[in-house]
Each structure stands twice: as C-alpha cells, then as structure tokens.
Amino acid sequence: MAAATPSSAPPPFLPVERRSAFPALVLNATLVNGLVVAVRLVASYRALSLDADALGLGIVASAFALLSVVAAVPMGRLVDRFGEPIFLALAGLVLAGGSALALTADTIALLAVSQALLGLGQLAQVVASQTLVSRRGDRATRSARFGLYAAGAAIGQLVGPLVGAVVVAGAAAPGVGGASSAWANRASAQPLPMSAQASART
Predict the structure, then answer these.
(1) pTM
(2) What is the domain partition of the chain in residue ranges?
(3) End-to-end alpha-carbon separation of the chain, Å?
(4) Of residues 117, 130, 100, 111, the one with CA closest to residue 22
(5) Which residues are CB-neighbours of 133 under 8 A, at least 6 positions away?
(6) Residue-wise pLDDT tens digits, 159-196
(7) φ, ψ for residue 26 (rounded to 5)?
(8) Nearest to 103 by CA among 34, 182, 33
(9) Which residues does 42 contact at the CB level (< 8 Å), separation at least 6?
(10) Overall average pLDDT of the 138-157 stretch
(11) SS (H, E, C) the chain
(12) Rounded to an integer, what is the distance from CA 194 to the centroid of its chain?
C-alpha cells in the first residue's frame, strides 16, 4: 500500500489578533485610495503647468502602472515570505514619497517617477491588505469582509477627486502665494481643447 503524501492544502485562516484590526484595514484602504486619486489629479494639473502636451500627459498617467506591472508577482511572493505588516508600512513610505514628489516635481520626467512610485505603493498596500483579509477571520465571513474592504476603497475613490480639486482650487485662489499658486494658476490658464471651445461658443 502506497504511503499517503501530504496534500498541498491552502494555509489555514488565522484568528484576528485584535478586534480593531479589520476596521483599521478598511480605513487604510479608504485613505490610500483617496490619496492616490487625489494626487493623480493634482499631478495632471501640474503637468499642464509644465506645458505638457497630450503625449506628456499620457506618459505621466501611464507611469502609474509601470512598476506595478513588473513587481506584481514578486510582491505577492515577498508578502508571503516577510509578512503583511512590513509591506503595509513600506507602502505608506512609498506613497508619501511619491505624493511629495508629485507636488514638487518641476519636470515631466520627475512627475512620471512620482506616479510610478504612487502605483508601486498602492500595489504593496493592496497585496498586503487583501492577504490579511483572506487569511484572518472565519471562512464564513470572508466574503463579507472582502465586500466591506472594497466598499472602503470605493469611498476613497469617491472622495479623492474632490480632495484633489480642493487642493488645486486652493493653490490657485487669489492671495495664495508661492510655487503652488504659480503652477495651479498656470494650469488653470491653459487654453481649452478645440472641442471645448466650440461647445462654449454654442
């Protein structure tokens, strides 16, 4: 009789260490998604202030996914190896650096780098957070927990554009000095596309 071989069963679900862990994870998803959407909006206005053409805007926007495409699979393996909390912390650092660079970049290239960092930071946050959601808690509540997590992320994506708009409007407001006012006013003064000009005349 052949000896039984161990099955490759999925890792067991881990107990939730603290009752506040999951709500904090949902809040983290809301804040990160709100930050990412807001900074990407502000970066677009900053690109306009640097006289970016359509190609330049496209490069800045697509750079967001550049590092994520390369790092997605290795990121999952590293999270399994070193644990989710480490990557949640690293995600916060990378997101902070990308956001700061987006607000201060004075070239299209630096703006593109800031968006690539932003995308990498969000990738780390998503992989680590979803791993935590899937491994902690009861099997019976896993679907509900993913639903709540997704709702938290959606709230961030809803609020983020409004926050970005407030930042741009505040920087361009009369009486607001400094470099931020300069780029915001310059972006707001960019000529409308021809289609928009035609609509305005009708």
Answers:
(1) 0.75
(2) 21-161
(3) 86
(4) 130
(5) 22, 25, 142, 145, 146, 149
(6) 999 999 998 887 765 544 444 445 555 554 555 444 34
(7) -65, -45
(8) 182
(9) 102, 103, 164, 167, 168
(10) 89
(11) CCCCCCCCCCCCCECCCCCCHHHHHHHHHHHHHHHHHHHHHHHHHHHHHCCCCHHHHHHHHHHHHHHHHHHHHHHHHHHHHHCHHHHHHHHHHHHHHHHHHHHHCCCHHHHHHHHHHHHHHHHHHHHHHHHHHHHECCHHHHHHHHHHHHHHHHHHHHHHHHHHHHHHHHHHCCCCCCHHHHHHHHHHCCCCCHHHHHHHHC
(12) 32
Residue whose structure tokens are 């260490």:
17
pLDDT in tens, 58-94: 999 999 999 999 999 999 999 999 999 999 999 999 9
One-letter amino acid at 30 equals: T
- Choose among 65, 63, 87: nearest CA to 76: 87
pLDDT at 182 (0 to 100): 52
Q: Which amino acid is at 26?
A: V
Residue 143: C-alpha distances to residues 14, 97, 127 (Å): 16, 33, 17
The contacts of residue 119 (CB under 8 Å, 6+ apart) are: 63, 64, 65, 66, 67, 68
Q: For the domain bounded by 21-161, which CATH number is listed?
A: 1.20.1250.20
The C-alpha atoms of residue 85 and residue 77 are separated, in whole angstroms, by 14
For the chain, state the CA radius of gyration.
21
Q: What value, to the nearest 5°, has the Cα angle with vertex 172 and ends 171 and 178? A: 55
